[in-house]
Amino acid sequence: MAGARRWFDATPMGMRTVVTWTVLVHGYVAAGDMETARELFYAMPARNVFVWSSMVTGYFKAGDADEARAMFDRVPVRNLVSWNALIAGYAQIGRSEEALHAFHSMLEDRVKPDEFTMASVLSACAQLGSLKQGRKVHEFMERTRIRKNHFVLNGLVDMYAKCGDLEYARKVFDSIQRRNTECWNSMISALASHGRSEEAIQLFSQMECSEQKPNGVTLLAVLGACTHGGFVEEGLRVFNSFGAYGVAAGVEHYGCLVDLLGRAGRLEEAHAIVKSMAMEPNEVIWGALLGACRVHDNAEMSERVSDEINQLRSDGASTNDAEYIMLSNILAASERWEQAERVRRKMANHGVEKTPGCSSVELDIPEHKVRCR
């Protein structure tokens, strides 16, 4: 950007067109420097639709949705590009209801949406988990014959899956002739998150035979499926194949593997993997192993893990109250009362309190049966 700015400043005023200004403003927006982008934007002699939309997108990425909306409201003539920037911005920051409201306002403004609009709207429906709204959007797309590119098809798979209609999600997936990696990821993740681990693993096997290579997201979803389905050997095979796919294992992948081995009671293996990690294991990793110790009542391993967690704390890591409570419960369950009491005293010294468990139940009571006093 420094080089671009030097060339811009060296350009004679008479040669600076709206395109010249727009390119520079968009560059600052892409770099996340909204202060300089705003300064240049208001200095522009004339503005086109693209630079208005770029500013809207930039404010959303900076987390300032109110300023993004204020900028959109000042657009003199709104077109498809402007509306897409607003709808996509709301969807990307999780303000799904506002994204759908903007979509309906766009239709009232008689602006015809395209496939990029629909991908954002489907994402909003998926975040809300509203199958009814998602179906209406799908019907609208069919009725208006909007082109279904990969973004839209992936969005349909993701929307139906997250809204609980796995059968229709799979139907859409099977209808896609040329699936990209994101498409495979959507379906595998959907099956894994709904507890259909065996189907997720089978679909991953099909992906391995396709032209698309798994990425870190794919492998995380498959490891999650193996964990919840108890497929230990398959999980180890997948983890050991990271190098073949050119994927570097992250802390989240190690967390899944530790959880997988821990649930199976293979605590020594899980501990060895944590100790051999390429990066420093954090409290989440140790916490997963400590939780497995609790499940299998392994007090000896829990103390070793607790020592590792305490070492992290001595190095400046934050304290996690859950680990104190978990360790205390493990020791008590194995009738090691003195050690459990020591942990309880340590909890008290650190101001840790065990919160009583509670549940809430939502009752569907007809209004005419409810009386207020």
UniProtKB/TrEMBL annotation:
It comes from the Eukaryota. GO terms for molecular function: RNA binding. PPR repeats lie at residues 17-51, 79-113, 114-148, 180-214. It comes from Triticum turgidum subsp. durum (Durum wheat). One of its GO terms (biological process) is RNA modification. InterPro entries: E_motif, PPR_At4g14850-like_plant, PPR_rpt, TPR-like_helical_dom_sf. Keywords: Repeat, Transit peptide. NCBIfam families: PPR. This is Pentatricopeptide repeat-containing protein. It holds the Pfam family E_motif.
